[in-house]
Amino acid sequence: MRRTQLYEIHSKTAKMTMFAGFEMPLWYKGIVQEHLAVRNSVGVFDVSHMGRVIITGKDSEHFLNHVITNDVSTLTPNSALYSVMCNENGGIVDDFVVSRIEEEKFLLVPNATNREKDYNWLTKHAEGYNVKIEDVSDKSAMLAIQGPSAEKALQKICTENLSKIERFKCASAKLADVNVFLSRTGYTGEDGFEVYVWDASLEKPEKAVKVWNAILEAGKAFGIEPCGLGARDTLRLEAGLCLYGNDIDENTTPLEARLGFVVKFQKDSFIGKNALLKQKEEGVKRRRVGLQMIEQGIPRQGFKVYNDQSEEIGQVTSGTFSPLLKCGIAMAYIQTQHAQEGNVVNVEIRGKLAKAKIVPFPFYDVEKYGYKRKTP
Q1: Mean pLDDT of all residues in the chain?
Q2: Which of 140, 231, 251, 272 is deepest in the core (most CB within 10 A)?
Q3: 2-28 confidence digits (pLDDT tens)
Q4: The model's pTM
Q5: Sequence-distant (≥ 6) Cβ neighbours of residue 302 within 8 angstroms
Q6: How many Cα atoms are found within 13 Å in the side-chain-facing hemisphere of 167?
C-alpha cells in the first residue's frame, strides 16, 4: 500500500479508498457536493499518486518524438500538450500531458496505474539517445485546483499574474512562499491549474502540506472544497475524458478512442505509426462514443449495448450518474456503423434493456460549463 505526501491530512477528514495501489481520498463531504463545487466554483485535488518523470539532454525532443504520437517540437519552453504513447501495434501504453520546462527539459505525467510501466518503457526505448530519464514522483507532490474560480482563488497566494498563463501553458511561481511549477490544464473539463511542489518528498512533505492548506484558505471565499477520486471520476466522465484501464489500454488505438488529434502522421516515425496508418487507411471498426440515458438506469463498465434488432454492437467502458445532468451517462465502444450521434441504442442494465442516445463529448452545455463557458 502506497501513500501520498498528504495522507495524514486525508486520513483525518476523508473516506479513503484503494486506487492503483495507493490509499487515496474517495470523498470528503460527498461526491455530488465536491463535483458541483468544481463545476460551479472551485475544488482542489491531491493527485500526487500520478507520476512525474523528468527527461533532459540534447536528444530529449528527438527521443520524445520517437516514443509519443504528438509532436513536442511544436512546444516552446513553458508550454504543454496532451499525447499518448503507443506500442508497435498502435495500442495505447498510456496517455498523459507533456510540458516543456526548458529547451532540453521535459516533464511527463503518467497515470498512477502506469508509473513504473511508463518509466520502464521510456528507459527501454532510450538506447542510442543522449537523454537522462528521472522518476521524481516520490520527491515531489502534485495538486490540481479546478473550477471557474480556480484562477481567482490561486491568485491570492501566487506571485505570478495567473491571467497571463494561457491554457496549456506553464510557469514557475511561488505559492505561499513555496517554489512551485504551474501548468494550466486539467482533468475535469473546467479551467484550472496543476501545482507541482518539487521539494516535497514522502519523507519531508511539509511544503506540500503548506501549499494544500494555503489553497484551501485562499479558496474559502469562493466555497472551495477538497475533492476525492469519486468527484474526479464523475467530472472527467461528464467532460468526455478517458480513464486509462477503463476507456483506453494497450488493446485500444487512439483512432478508435477518438484521440486522432494527438497522432501526428507527418512526423518521420514514432512507435506504432505503421499500425495506425494501416488502421486509418482501412477504417476503424469501433469507436468511442458518449451515451446519455433516455430511460432510467445507470450504465456501468462491462454492460453490453444493443441495436433495435437486439444485436450486440458494443460495450460500456465507464458509466455513472451525472450530478449535473441528473441522469445516467457512459462511454462505450460501438461498432462504427452504429456510432453516429443521435442514434438510439439499448444498454443492458440488470437484465433489462434501457434506451440511451449517442451524444457528443462533453456531455454538458459548453456555453454554461467547462473552460469554454460564456457565463461568468
Answers
A1: 97
A2: 231
A3: 999 999 999 999 999 999 999 999 999
A4: 0.97
A5: 315, 316
A6: 10
| Residue pLDDT, tens place only, 150-174 | 999 999 999 999 999 999 999 999 9
Q: Is 55 left (phi over 0), alpha (psi -120 to 50) or beta?
A: beta
User: Both 151 and 121 in a single domain?
Assistant: no
Environment class of 5 (CB within 10 Å of its CB; exposed 0-12, middle 13-18, buried 19+): buried
Looking at the predicted structure, is the pLDDT value of residue 376 above 90? Answer: no
304 in Cβ contact with 330 (< 8 Å) = no
- Contact between residue 348 and residue 306 where contact means Cβ atoms under 8 Å apart: yes
Domains identified in the chain, total number: 3
User: What are the backbone angles phi and psi of residue 161, rounded to the nearest 5°?
Assistant: -80, 105
175 and 90 both lie in a single domain: no
**What is the extent of the structural domain holding 192?**
7-51+138-237
Q: Count of CB atoms within 10 A of residue 1's CB?
A: 6
* DSSP bridge partners of 333: 288, 315
* Residue 18 in grid coordinates: 484503494
Q: Which residue has the cell 495538486?
A: 143
194 and 223, same domain (yes or no): yes
Rounding to the nearest 10 degrees, give the CA dihedral for residues 210, 108, 164, 156: -10
CATH code, 32: 3.30.1360.120
Residue 375 has pLDDT above 90, yes or no: no
**In this structure, are 226 and 340 located in the same domain?**
no
* Triad 349, 330, 298: Cα angle to 5°: 35
Whether residues 179 and 149 fall in one domain: yes
Please write the tens of the pLDDT for every residue from 140-155.
999 999 999 999 999 9
Contact 60, 351 (CB under 8 A): no
| φ and ψ of 218, to 5 deg | -65, -30
